[in-house]
Write a sequence for this structure.
């Protein structure tokens, strides 16, 4: 789709282009030779004005504001120069092709801009608020208040973050996470704004206002991303500031000096100066470099990874060391019973021991207690423990030790070794199991066995590490608060190179700083965490990568890169996208600069024509833009 | 107060020029013209906002006659 302005320009180009061909044909046939110079001048001047009036107008306005060296000014001077030395067809051609190039540029830029923004069209347009009497009012999502009940029909976007109060459906989170499998959501489940309701009607209660909901935070983040400029973009901006004036001065010198020295005729030197001016516009770089970065950021958001700025994309391309926080990053952060060990199987079976432990833990909300309870439900296929055997009134939590309760009339102890020894449990011996947290069970004063609870390693952790190594990050490190043997066991399972165990959260920053100081400029360190208590480390690392877990505020705030669905295999994908983007940007810089330099040299020596100079300006810009658009394509 | 407006602007450089011009206006806390998203964000205190906004539009028109800000 062209904008109105683009259509108008296109029509002008078509008109002038046909006039131009007629004039060239007439000239080749010699029909124009008979005409007086003034008539010939006027014949070319009319189409020139049709095609170039806006350029001249803009140049004039800018000069009145004191902005001299812009491309409009350069084109004006170059074509005036061509007219002055009697190169009428060239003057018209330069302006005509300049406009064609400009139109194409603005079309291409608009197109890629659109495809990026469309991809991120996660913003909900409306919200249906259910009134007191059950009537439904359509309002702007901005007007939704916390606590409002909203109706979301199939195919509609969830307008604000909320919780389902009625209905059940599958929710498409693809726009936010890149995950194509829909998630089930029923009563009591949290739902995230920007996701699409797949089938049924859902009633949700708003828990956040629109401004604070996931969708508007993400949009703001992505829109601001292009403000954080990469080193390359800053370089181009600085470069453009000096390049144009320098070339312009060069052109002036080229026009004046050789005729004074008597080397060249004035008309010839002006022609060379015009070539200089045409080539001197740096737009190929000024447009294509930020576009490339924007495309790279767009490509990442397509796979559910948000990058907060081009500078971080640039840094990500140089990642050599990846440091992981263990819990919630390499592991699921959910505890699971991995082993049940009775001390004497003749005395008590595994199932009995688990039932006993689950009964004791039934009233606690501690994650470990929940996991023991869940393990029993799963193993026994019952829906609950036998509540007649135990009562909440008898249950006491011994802080830092475990639980004391009464089970079928006798005392039940669940907890760590300290709890056992303090209560003088008979025949208690500490287990030498290293794979996780241990809950000992003692009943009626006698030791019965123990239950092992471990954090579960993510299914994709091993694959993620090997992919990261494949893309060239040669060092992987795991930081954890776990005991050394537990940590080393996990590291070995997933292929991590180095483990730093038994760390307090505060130690993590110091450790990462130490690693940062020992690396050189061209290798960057990434820290991957879930953002829960490692925000300072996320900020300190060259590239902080956070698990977004769909809406964790701390993570989104502190990190430079956010993986929306916590899939760590995407780390290597991001590194790949970053490398590709940087590659494209470098190609463009080298290509555009070398073509320009070559044409400048040829122009100075009088070995080229204005036609080639026009290619050197708009042709190069168009090629560079097309190349930049490749950055938007993703390959996972 | 911070408000976002749709803004039609042709090139990255033009957007930067507009942004600079708006930032110079008295009463503007912050301003951003985003070429990629075609958005103009203006931040100014509530009591002078409308006044600042009309000045900002004028300033943009001055440096970039082609630009279009939807209010």
């Amino acid at each position: 789709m062209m904008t109105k302005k683009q259509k108008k320009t296109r029509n002008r180009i078509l008109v002038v282009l046909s006039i131009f061909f007629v004039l060239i044909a007439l000239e080749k046939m010699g029909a124009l030779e008979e005409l007086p110079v003034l008539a010939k001048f006027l014949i070319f001047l009319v189409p020139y004005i049709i095609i170039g009036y806006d350029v001249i107008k803009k140049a004039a306005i800018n000069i009145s504001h004191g902005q001299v060296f812009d491309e409009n000014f350069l084109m004006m001077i170059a074509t005036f120069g061509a007219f002055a030395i009697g190169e009428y067809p060239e003057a018209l051609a330069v302006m005509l092709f300049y406009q064609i190039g400009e139109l194409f540029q603005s079309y291409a830029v608009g197109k890629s801009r659109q495809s990026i923004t469309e991809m991120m069209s996660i913003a909900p347009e409306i919200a249906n608020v259910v009134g007191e009497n059950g009537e439904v009012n359509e309002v702007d999502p901005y007007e939704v208040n916390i606590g409002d009940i909203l109706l979301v029909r199939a195919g509609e976007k969830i307008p604000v973050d909320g919780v389902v109060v009625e209905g059940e459906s599958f929710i498409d989170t693809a726009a936010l996470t890149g995950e194509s499998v829909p998630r089930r959501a029923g009563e009591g489940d949290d739902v995230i704004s920007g996701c699409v309701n797949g089938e049924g009607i859902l009633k949700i209660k708003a828990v956040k206002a629109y401004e604070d909901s996931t969708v508007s935070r993400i949009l703001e983040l992505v829109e601001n991303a292009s403000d954080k400029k990469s080193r390359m973009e800053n370089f181009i901006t600085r470069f453009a500031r000096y390049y144009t004036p320098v070339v312009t001065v060069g052109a002036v010198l080229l026009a004046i000096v050789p005729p004074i020295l008597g080397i060249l005729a004035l008309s010839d030197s002006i022609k060379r100066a015009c070539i200089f001016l045409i080539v001197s516009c740096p737009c190929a770089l000024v447009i294509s470099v930020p576009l490339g970065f924007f495309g790279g950021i767009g490509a990442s958001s397509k796979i559910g990874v948000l990058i907060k700025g081009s500078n971080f994309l640039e840094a990500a391309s140089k990642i050599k060391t990846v440091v992981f926080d263990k819990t919630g990053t390499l592991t699921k952060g959910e505890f699971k019973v991995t082993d049940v060990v009775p001390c004497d199987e003749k005395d008590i079976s595994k199932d009995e021991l688990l039932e006993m432990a689950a009964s004791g833990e039934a009233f606690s909300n501690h994650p470990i207690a929940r996991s023991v309870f869940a393990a029993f439900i799963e193993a026994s296929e019952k829906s609950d423990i036998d509540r007649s055997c135990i009562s909440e009134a008898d249950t006491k939590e011994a802080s830092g030790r475990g639980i004391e309760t009464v089970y079928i009339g006798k005392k039940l102890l669940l907890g760590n070794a300290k709890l056992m020894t303090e209560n003088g449990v008979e025949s208690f011996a500490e287990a030498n199991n290293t794979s996780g947290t241990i809950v000992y069970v003692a009943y009626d004063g006698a030791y019965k066995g123990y239950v092992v609870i471990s954090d579960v390693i993510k299914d994709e952790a091993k694959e993620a590490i090997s992919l990261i190594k494949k893309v060239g990050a040669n060092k992987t490190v795991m930081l954890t608060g776990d005991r050394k043997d537990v940590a080393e066991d996990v590291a070995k399972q997933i292929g991590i190179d180095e483990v730093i165990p038994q760390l307090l959260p505060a130690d993590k920053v110091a450790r990462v700083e130490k690693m940062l100081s020992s690396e050189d400029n061209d290798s960057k360190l990434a820290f991957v965490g879930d953002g829960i208590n490692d925000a300072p480390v996320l900020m300190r690392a060259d590239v902080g990568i956070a698990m977004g877990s769909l809406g964790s505020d701390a993570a989104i705030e502190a990190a430079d890169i956010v993986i929306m669905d916590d899939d760590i295999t995407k780390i290597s994908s991001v590194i790949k996208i970053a490398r590709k983007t940087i590659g494209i940007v470098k190609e463009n810089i080298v290509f555009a600069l070398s073509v320009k330099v070559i044409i400048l040299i040829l122009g100075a020596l009088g070995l080229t024509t204005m036609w080639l100079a026009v290619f050197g300006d708009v042709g190069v810009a168009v090629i560079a833009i097309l190349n930049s658009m490749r950055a938007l394509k993703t390959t996972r | 107060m911070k408000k976002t407006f749709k803004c039609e602007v042709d090139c990255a450089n033009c957007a930067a020029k507009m942004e600079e011009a708006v930032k110079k206006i008295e009463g503007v806390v912050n301003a951003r013209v985003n070429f990629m998203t075609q958005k103009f964000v203006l931040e100014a205190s509530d009591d002078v906002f409308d006044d600042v906004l009309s000045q900002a539009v004028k300033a943009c028109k001055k440096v970039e006659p082609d630009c279009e800000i939807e209010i």
Q: What stands out?
A: The interface with chain B takes residues 3, 5, 58, 61, 65, 67, 106, 109, 113, 116-117, 223, 226-227, 283, 286-287, 290, 294 of chain A (CB under 8 Å). Residues 570-604 of chain A form the longest helix (35 residues). Chain A has a mean pLDDT of 84.
